[in-house]
Each structure stands twice: as structure tokens, then as C-alpha cells.
Amino acid sequence: MNKKISKIVAGIILISGFNAANAELFVNPVTKAATGAKEVSAHFGASSVDYEVDGTSGDIDRTFLGATIAYGMNKSIDIYGTANYTLEAEVENFPDDGSGFMLGAGIRGVIPNNAGVSLHGYAQFLLIDESYGGSPEIEGEEMSIMAGVVAATALNNDIKLYGGLELNLMSDMEIESVDADRDDFLGIRLGANFNAGSFLINVNISLMHETGFFIGASKPF
After folding, report:
1. Mean pLDDT score of the chain
2. 51 and 60 in contact (C-beta within 8 Å)?
3. Could you give the CA distance from residue 83 to residue 180 in angstroms, rounded to a whole number?
4. What is the pLDDT confidence band of residue 97, given thresholds at 50, 70 and 90?
5. In Å, what is the CA distance from 142 to each residue of 12, 23, 58, 199, 204?
6. What is the structure's pLDDT at 94?
7. How much is the pLDDT for 181?
8. Region 131-152 average pLDDT
9. Lowest-pLDDT range of 18-32, 37-51, 96-110, 176-190
10. Per-residue model confidence (pLDDT) at position 135
11. What's the average model confidence in pLDDT over 82-90?
């Protein structure tokens, strides 16, 4: 990247504030595939996450579509892979926007307890590659690791509510030659599962570390 592009990126981040879309959780955290079986899901979401560059904070806005496949390793643990297309990645105060993709893998599982609610844990590794427009086009890449624990309780046979804490364990982002880190380590995830007969609908939001909305439909095979 030449010096002109470096100055453009630095100016966006340090003068206007850096606003960027960020990694979401791409799996339903409180479902469990049967041992040896699969769960396939499709989803849509939007997020806005704070990053920090040289003491200046901002965020990126993103909307995405994707699919996830989970596999039941045993009665307690699933592994999963996810592929997502970023419909729009927009840096705040920058006149253009772009697109990209996100690929990830993770694990989710049931945590034994005597608390009267079901506990579920998860961890996810994600690779992000996207562009933000401009001429020449500005591109960004990120590797991130997140983990969380949520408690779930059933209201009835068709509705289950859940909520818990989520951690940004690692974030390594680079836009051209400029490095950025996620601004907030701790977040909250709140959601609900709705039994729609053949499908399970999952709706959740994320707060604090990112502001996001996610809706997905899954089916076991």
C-alpha cells in the first residue's frame, strides 16, 4: 500500500473515528445436535462493534447472510463450521461501503450444574476479509476468538429464553497497514428459541462489546 492510502486510512480512524462491523456468534448457543447427527442453519444479522486505534475508538457496521453446520461429537459437545457473506461493510464517516466474507469454526456444549437452569458454553474462531470502498479500494482483515456462557430456561414447550456473558478473547484486525483492536472485552448476549415445528427459530441480540441483531432457522438431520 502506498503512502497516500496510508494517510487516508489513518485520517478516517484518527480524525473521524473508526466505525466497523465485527464478528457475530454464528451458531445457536443453547441447542444440541444428537451424537453423530448434524444441525444445519441459515441466518441473517447486523452488527456494529467498537474498535480502538491509538486511543481513538469507533465502530464498523455490517449486515450479513450465512449458513452453519453443527455436528454432535457426543452427548455434551458439538463442533461447527460457518460461512457468511457480508452484504455491506461500512466504516462510519467514510462515504463508500463494501462487502466481504467471514469463515469460522467453533464448539458448543452443555455445562452440568445444579442451579435449576441449563448452562451452555461456546467458543468461536473467525476469519474476516472485507472491503470498505474507496479508490483505490480499502480492505480489512481480522482474526478473532470469542467465548461465552449462557443460562437458559423454558417458558413452555415452544419458547426458551437465554442470556449470559460473552468475552472477546482475541482480536487482530488490520485495515491496509493500520492495526486495530476491539475496544470492549466483556459483553452480554440475550436471546430466545421458538419451536416452529419443522424448524427452530433463534433470535438474539448482543450488547456492550458490540451492538448486534441475529435471526436464524435450524433443522436437525
Report:
1. 84
2. yes
3. 23
4. confident
5. 18, 9, 16, 32, 23
6. 73
7. 66
8. 89
9. 18-32
10. 81
11. 93
Q: Is residue 33 classed exposed, middle or buried when 0-12, 13-18 and 19+ CB atoms within 10 A define those classes?
A: buried
The pTM (predicted TM-score) of the whole model is: 0.83
Distance of CA 120 to the CA centre of its chain: 17
Q: Please, what's the largest Cα pairwise distance for the chain?
A: 60
**Rounded Cα distance, 134 and 23, in Å:** 22
**Calpha distance 63→47 (Å, rounded):** 7
Q: Which residues of 188-218 are buried (b: 16+ CB within 10 A; e: fewer)?
A: ebebbbeeeeeebebebbbeebbbbebebbb
**DSSP β-bridge partners for residue 153:** 161
- In angstroms, the CA 152 to CA 160 distance is 7
The residues near 196 (Cβ < 8 Å, ≥ 6 apart) are: 217
